[in-house]
Amino acid sequence: MSLFDKAAKDWDSKPHRVETARKVGEAILSSVPVSKGWRVLDFGAGTGLLTFFIAPHVSEIVALDNSKGMIEVLKEKIDKFGANNVKPFLGSYSDFQFELSFDLIVSSMSVHHVKDVGELFRWFSSNLKKRGYVAVADLLKEDGTFHSDNTGVYHFGFDREEFESYMVSSGIEPVSFNIVHSIKKNGREYPIFLSVGQKV
Ligand SMILES: C[S@@+](CC[C@H](N)C(=O)[O-])C[C@H]1O[C@@H](n2cnc3c(N)ncnc32)[C@H](O)[C@@H]1O
Hints:
Strand order of the largest sheet: 3-2-1-4-5-7-6
Structural class: alpha/beta
Bound molecules: S-adenosylmethionine
CATH architecture: 3-Layer(aba) Sandwich
């Protein structure tokens, strides 16, 4: 059982997680021309905090996560909310290929848990339609104190240059990079960025 499987049942009880997903969701809706007909993917969807925020604005949203516990909670929420346009997928990104099918790929607080971010962005690009968008939120570079346990944490946040270089190398043009939220923890602030790019 992974750390995320164990955390899944109580994941939504932490107000800072709900607040972060809301802030990131609002920032995505104001920086990307999201349309009702769009097909979207949420990478590292967890219990769907961001997924369910975006779902009413689009045609379909695939919620992809490799934690069984997280996907179980997400499925319970689909039934509870009657959110029929949310499609759960259990597995790592590299287990699936959706072939140029998404108008938008979103993600919040998940990319720092992926070892090979260059590979992840190439996967994003290969599953995006031409001119499709990525909108990824994560921690700005930090000193390793954000998580109480750094198991499964491969990056202590990212700076703009590094993040946009992953986009450029995978054929995605950087569009904007903004600080959209700040998480207060351990008596300090951890800024959260939203990086938007468009496939060329
Ligand atoms: C910090 S949680 C964020 C969850 C959610 N986006 C939120 O903001 O509440 C990171 C999530 O990424 C998922 N994850 C990490 N590596 C993954 C991978 N290779 N493929 C799919 N999901 C992954 C974890 O299982 C976990 O649910």
